[in-house]
Write a structure and sequence with these properties.
The chain is of the alpha/beta class. The chain has one domain: Aldolase class I (TIM Barrel, Alpha-Beta Barrel), CATH 3.20.20. The chain is built from eight helices and twelve strands. The protein has a ten-stranded mixed sheet with strand order 1-12-11-10-9-8-7-6-5-2. Strands 3-4 form a two-stranded antiparallel ribbon. Bound molecules: iron/sulfur cluster. Iron/sulfur cluster binds next to loops.
């Protein structure tokens, strides 16, 4: 078992970084003006060049960070965040984007693509995160645009929309797929205000295990949701997978205010969980220790 720092070496500059440090949001209430040619208000309609694909689609980008050395293993990447989610995890670190995405103006996507084009010489790819990006029907068309720029794509997802993930894999629009496994499937109802069927997550796990690209499963080890028993049950589902990342829980920004007062596992306990996880997958990394 290796820590993230061991594995990625000097690319890991700050192990205890805040998840959204350096991320740029347009402040709520910002009006995105339609000024020079090509600038738009709100979401841009992205033209898809793929035969048979939807002709026009939109993606609502809510946050952007130009350069990250930490979020796309082995690559320098830009980060893009979409809004909205089909869960409301009590420990979520970005409640604003999840609960009220409309409060954040959309980045003009044509300007974003122009910015990424300028960065082509020093970034390898783009990480698409959220919120939950697979909810955005404009995602496939947007990823095609990134591919046309020659950029690699990493998708961070909660895995509850396997049909979208299947399509993106099928179209070879992804280079790296990271899927959160937040607790055992039967406890997913604790992550939302409505019942959550575990069946889609189980389908996604099989898709990830069969995928011919780099993949990781990742679990934030929130003591209230993931103990050794849960970890073993999850491990059975992930058995044989190439990589399982166990992340430290950072309570202070939790969506549910009461969870901000909870304690994370001490490092030694997380390391013990890592040893358990090693019995199920090819490689385990600890992140955030
Ligand atoms: S942690 Fe992820 S899946 Fe959960 S509510 Fe936040 S964005 Fe959605």
């Amino acid at each position: 078992m290796k820590s993230e720092e061991d594995y990625y070496g000097d690319q890991v500059r700050c192990k205890n970084r805040s998840l959204f440090k350096g991320l740029r949001f347009l402040p709520p209430g910002t009006t995105v003006e339609s000024g020079e040619k090509g600038r738009v208000q709100g979401s841009l309609r992205v033209q898809s060049g793929q035969p048979g694909a939807e002709k026009l689609s939109t993606i609502a980008v809510k946050g952007f960070q130009g350069t990250s050395l930490l979020d796309f293993p082995g690559r320098v990447a830009s980060l893009i965040f979409t809004g909205g989610c089909n869960l409301t995890c009590p420990f979520c670190h970005n409640p604003g984007l999840v609960l009220d995405p409309g409060a954040f103006p959309d980045f003009p996507v044509n300007e974003l693509l122009a910015d990424l084009k300028k960065r082509q010489s020093f970034i390898d790819g783009v990480v698409i995160s959220g919120g939950e990006p697979t909810l955005d029907t404009g995602l496939p068309a947007f990823l095609r645009q990134l591919k046309e720029l020659g950029l690699q794509v990493k998708l961070d997802t909660n895995g509850l929309l396997p049909e979208v993930i299947h399509r993106l894999l099928d179209e070879q629009l992804l280079d790296y797929l990271a899927v959160d496994i937040k607790t055992t499937p039967d406890r997913y109802g604790e992550l939302h205000t409505r019942p959550v069927s575990p069946a889609p997550l189980l389908r996604t796990i099989e898709l990830v295990k069969a995928a011919a690209i780099e993949t990781e499963f990742r679990t934030t080890c929130v003591p209230q949701l993931v103990g050794e028993d849960e970890l073993r049950l999850i491990g059975e589902l992930l058995r044989g997978a190439p990589l399982w990342v166990l992340q430290q829980f950072l309570p202070e920004h939790s969506l549910v205010v009461e969870w901000q007062e909870l304690s994370a596992y001490p490092p030694g306990q997380l390391e013990r969980l890592g040893k358990v996880a090693e019995g199920y997958v090819e490689r385990v990394l600890l992140r955030g220790l």
